[in-house]
Amino acid sequence: MKNWTGFFAASCLCANVLFAAGPKVIFEKTPYGGIQPQAMVDSTGTLHLLYYKGLPREGDLFYVARAKGQKSFSAPLKVNNIKGSACCIGAIFRARMAISQDGIVHVLWNGSFGFVKKQWEKKGKQRTPEEFTYLFYTRLADDGKSFKAQINLNRNTYGLDGNGSITVDRNGVVRVFWHANLKGRSDRMAFMVQSTNKGRSFSEEAPITRSPTGACECCTLEAFTSSTGKTFVAYRTAETTGRDVVIFSSGTRNSPFKEVHRHQWKVFTCPASTFAFAEDTRKIYAAWETKGH
Prior knowledge:
Elements: E1 7-9, E2 27-29, E3 35-41, E4 47-55, E5 58-66, E6 77-78, E7 96-99, E8 105-110, H1 113-123, E9 135-139, E10 151-152, E11 157-158, E12 165-168, E13 174-182, E14 189-195, E15 206-207, E16 222-225, E17 231-236, E18 245-250, E19 258-263, E20 275-279, E21 284-288
Antiparallel strand pairs: 1-2, 3-4, 4-5, 5-6, 7-8, 8-9, 9-10, 11-13, 12-13, 13-14, 14-15, 16-17, 17-18, 18-19, 20-21
């Protein structure tokens, strides 16, 4: 078996942007033998790190933190309370993390293939696809010593594939986005749920747009909430004219999402795209793979 090692960069840079005196980037090995890390730095300078351990189709998530100026990470906390309910296959199946201004860590991930298989065998094949679709969420407990029991945010969609995304705005509103199928529609759609009580409960899923853009099922979806409170959602469409990248934006908590950017690509197979957002004092940046890049 190959021994995969995860690395993370201790500083974030935007590609294709030149700095006169850029920050020093240090690469570090993910602690405790973890892979597929996601690193975030909060307003106090604390580094938060989410990583995966286990087999590709069935494993567990862990969280550690390192205060500014410290050299060692905290002891790992297991994120998922159901053993083996996370998975890690390439860059398409990955857990996502968001941190609120008051330090609460929120985590989202797709239920593992192994976990779904066990539920299928337990409940029987007469059940509907929606009952075997697991989009798991949990958050760090108030005492910071453990994570709360994971819950399934999905109610009515099915056919999860590329991972979803999670954001927290400056008011503490948690939003979760993913793309999936919905009974009665032939095209995939992007959905959102939100929590206004710090993740204690969530609304029922609703599409961010009714436009028949479709969604490329093996590509990821990424969301980002800016320092000013705007939320952006990027994913790849699945239309008869190609598989374009679209970015939607919503200005406030309850305002509708509107398409603000489209990058066309006349390709008709899944390119397995991933997405990323970043922000500096001047602009918001978005990045994704496309033809030749």
